[in-house]
Structure formats: C-alpha cells, structure tokens
C-alpha cells in the first residue's frame, strides 16, 4: 500500500510539472499588417521566449509570495475556495449517482438479462453511451425551452444565481459515466458466471439472491477500480459544461484564465482538480485493501 501511494504521488507531481510546462508554452498571437486589408497571424515559438515565460512565472510567485491577487484585487486562493464549493454541488452528486445508481442498475440489468426488462435496459444503455455530454446538455435545454412555450413555468437555464442551476450540467456529465458503470457491472457479473465457487454455492443449496450477493462482492474490486475513470471523466467534462451553462465555478474560470494568459490563476484552479483525482486514486486503493483483502474467485 505504501509503495502504491508513493507511485501515485510521483505521478501526481509529474502531472503538475507537465501541466505547468504546457501552460507556459508561448501562445500569444503575433499579427503583422502588410498594408490595406492584408494581415498575417503567427504563433512564434523560440526557446528563449519559453525560458522568459518560465522565469516570469517563477518571479511572480517569488514577488507575490504565493499566487497573488486577481484583476479585481481579490486573493486568488480565496477566489478558488469560493468557486470550488460551486463545483462540489455538481461533482459530488454526479460521482455518487454514477457509482451508486450505475452499479445498482448494472446489477438489475444482469439479474433480468434474459427478460424483456433487461433487454430494454441494455438497449437504452447502448443509446445513452453513444450520446456526447455536450449534445445531451444542448438537447435538455432545447426540450425545456419547448416546454416553456407550451405553458411549463419558466426558470433560469444559465448562470449560477439560483440553487437549481447546477442540475442541468450535473445531469449532462453524469449520464455517460453512469451508463458506463451499468454496462461494466453487468459485464463483470457475466464474467463471474463461469467461476467454480458458483457451482459450490449451488451445491450447498444457496438461493439465487444469495449467490448474486457473493458475485457482487467478488466484483467489487473491479468496480472500485472504475472510480478513477468516472472521476477523471467528470473532472474533464465539468469545465466545458460550466462554460456552456455560464455556471461560474472553478472549471469555468480555469478555461477563462487559460484564454487570458493568466498562468498563476490557471494553475490555482487546476490544482484542486488534480488533488481531487489524486485523492480518488488513493481512497479507492485504500478501500480495496481494507474492505476487499481477498481476491475474487473465492466464496465470501
């Protein structure tokens, strides 16, 4: 466990270092006027310019003794703390629904796999796994706008001024990872069907539900492994969804900071995302070591 933690920490530090190097790549556009309406645009890159940007970045932290203030004079770390709370209103329910509801629906799909309800569920899982989250977001907004026209009470679809503004972005980024967990859980249980311990369980006269309980327990190790994929998907999709919804959370301002070449502020907004990913990896491994010490294939 200690070695796994050290490896995860090293990967985490390497990712931060790589992100900073990418962030500091010269991206400013150089526009040249050739007379009349003739212009050319170029993105010049030289190692001298790259080194200047790195030196200026390091000097900023030395002079400010930290991330400093934003353009409004507010300390960047205070801004990050405030906006990160808005992100949690999306990330936490999305993660719980993806892992919890997705796993439960996967168990239901497996249990009823030979019946009409299981086949219908498998069909809809296939449909929703093919829909990009941004398309789902736009489709939800279009549907709600049409409902407004036929008399459904109107409410705000954009911004973050109302308590319910997190719902549409949360639904949009939850559907794919939840469907992924449905399909993964069902497939994992299918793979357990050929294990020897099932024949032992049947010979002991255990009921189907008791056998299913043992199968689920032996699949938990694989299911917990998917937590990292689910969190990675949520964190990478969140900034785009916030931008589309004008939901001004940390992800929204991360993209804005990158576009405005405000590297220290961009790093301040990126670090919590990387820390959440790192915490997810460590906690999922800890749960596997503490709760599932035995390997799959044995009757629990």
TrEMBL record:
Pfam families cross-referenced by the UniProt entry: BPD_transp_1
Record-level GO BP terms: transmembrane transport
Residues annotated as transmembrane: 6-25, 90-112, 124-145, 166-189, 266-287
InterPro entries: MetI-like, MetI-like_sf
Domain (ABC transmembrane type-1) ranges: 84-287
First-listed, main subcellular location of the protein, grouped into a coarse class: membrane
A GO cellular-component term linked to this record: plasma membrane
Family: Belongs to the binding-protein-dependent transport system permease family.
The protein's name: ABC transmembrane type-1 domain-containing protein
Species of provenance: Robertmurraya siralis
Source taxonomy: Bacteria, Bacillati, Bacillota, Bacilli, Bacillales
